[in-house]
Write a structure and sequence with these properties.
Layout (H helix, E strand, L loop, with lengths): L1 E7 L2 E5 L26 H8 L2 E6 L12 H11 L4 E4 L11 H16 L4 E4 L10 H11 L4 E3 L9 H11 L3 E4 L10 H10 L6 E4 L8 H5 L9
Parallel strand pairs: 3-4, 4-5, 5-6, 6-7, 7-8
Antiparallel strand pairs: 1-2, 1-3
Helix pairs in contact: 3-4
Length: 230
């Protein structure tokens, strides 16, 4: 599966797990075709030509996204597009509490993704009390660098989103994916606006995800813009 991020001034919108996103107003949605007569990579190439600013590559979208085939799918996609490809590093669906063995898998997958040309990586980890797992994140960030890193929608499960955002800023994450801790970006728009207003640094960008729709953009734009200078 793919999550396509596309620039929509003045918002940067990351569309993932969206069942019915209209193909207008800068929004794009695509699911990896799976069993299809089309050659793999063609959908990515089409969205790249259409103006997609970044591709987030993952498997298991029904589970919220898991690590894709790094040695296979990533290489094919990289051959087909000219935009940055960010790879999800998540060994399984479910919660965001990881065992030592799972952490080893995540580190190995991150190294392989870097080796095979990933332009950025996407991961997230929490503690049992719903806070950012700073120790684990620091360990994974050390493996992922110098690539840019996005904290994925584990953010929507945190106990205190405003505190969590400050933690991510201090850790050095460049982006955070969120639907405003709600079932969809439209439902979570009030929190998304608060997060955007809290960001006082150009080094982290809240990216709206999970069923953003064109009709929400004017409302989102009425708050401090979530822009990205890339």
């Amino acid at each position: 599966m793919l999550a396509i991020q596309q620039r929509c001034r003045p918002c940067t919108v990351s569309v993932c797990n969206a069942a019915a996103v209209p193909g207008r107003a800068g929004l794009a949605h695509m699911q990896w075709p799976g069993v299809s007569s089309r050659r793999e990579g063609e959908p990515c190439a089409a969205w790249s030509k259409a103006g997609a600013g970044r591709i987030e590559l993952c498997a298991g979208l029904i589970e919220g996204g898991t690590t894709p085939s790094v040695a296979g799918l990533l290489q094919v996609v990289k051959q087909c597009v000219r935009v940055p490809v960010f790879v999800m590093i998540r060994p399984r669906g479910g919660d965001f509490l990881y065992s030592d063995r799972e952490v080893d898998v995540m580190k190995a997958d991150a190294r392989l993704a870097k080796l095979h040309g990933a332009d950025g990586l996407v991961f997230g980890a929490l503690t049992e009390d719903g806070r950012i797992d700073t120790e684990l994140c620091m360990a994974l960030l050390a493996v992922c660098r110098p690539l840019p890193v996005t904290f994925h929608r584990a953010f929507d499960m945190v106990h205190d989103p405003m505190v969590a955002l400050e933690t991510l800023i201090s850790l050095g994450f460049e982006r955070v994916l969120t639907s405003g801790c709600d079932s969809s970006a439209l439902e979570g728009l009030p929190l998304i606006k608060r997060l955007a207003e809290q960001v006082s640094t150009p080094h982290i960008h809240p990216l709206v995800c999970c069923s953003p729709r064109a009709e929400m953009l004017p409302t989102a734009q009425s708050s401090q813009p979530m822009s990205e200078e890339t």
